[in-house]
Design brief:
The protein is mainly alpha-helical. It is 69% helix and 2% strand. The chain is globular and about 50 Å long.
């Protein structure tokens, strides 16, 4: 499914941009400080996990309990998680959201809110909203709220680096790092069992 997502996004970009991918982020990044990017991604991912965990999984789930508390199923193996979540999902989702959606709105970069451009904000919100589909997959409401909060936070950071670098490479790295940090609880659980 993720390959279809990436493929359809690339085909759409080619049609919209008359056969060129470079304006949509398929190029070498302009000056990017990868140490700063990594530290920001780890910091925001950890912060979003802590704040989101406390708010959604701690406070709201106890004040307004629901019957469904289902979370992500455990991966069959670490290799499966690395390939499907860390690599394939990161690349395909960034091609769609940062490559197609955010680049399509490039003309609105001058419009700012909280110091961020409209394409960055919309792209981050869209990325978070995509994860509402987890409700259809049977996940618990508060867990999905936690995931949407986490992915929106990471989505805004990835969108910021997409706009700053004019490339998809930095947002893909942000996404991979966030998926690794987000997998830490599951990884610890795998190791402990």
């Amino acid at each position: 499914m993720k390959f279809y997502l990436a493929g359809l996004s690339i085909i759409t970009i080619l049609i919209i941009n008359k056969g060129s991918l470079s304006r949509y982020g398929f190029r070498k990044p302009e000056s990017t400080n990868y140490l700063k990017l990594t530290l920001m991604a780890v910091g925001i991912a950890l912060g979003a996990m802590i704040v989101g965990g406390v708010v959604f999984m701690g406070i709201l789930s106890n004040v307004f309990p629901t019957e469904n508390t289902t979370v992500f199923p455990e991966a069959n193996s670490l290799i499966e998680r690395i390939i499907t979540v860390w690599i394939i999902s990161s690349i395909s989702e960034e091609i769609l959201v940062r490559g197609l959606v955010q680049s399509f709105m490039d003309g609105l970069k001058q419009r700012k809110l909280f110091g961020l451009s409209l394409p960055v904000i919309v792209s981050g919100l869209f990325f978070g909203a995509m994860h509402l589909a987890l409700l259809k997959a049977g996940m618990g409401h508060w867990f999905v709220g936690f995931i949407v909060f986490f992915t929106t936070s990471i989505g805004i950071l990835a969108a910021y680096y997409r706009e700053k670098s004019n490339s998809l490479i930095p947002p893909i790295l942000v996404h991979v790092i966030a998926n690794i940090v987000g997998s830490l609880p599951l990884l610890v659980k795998m190791i402990m069992s």
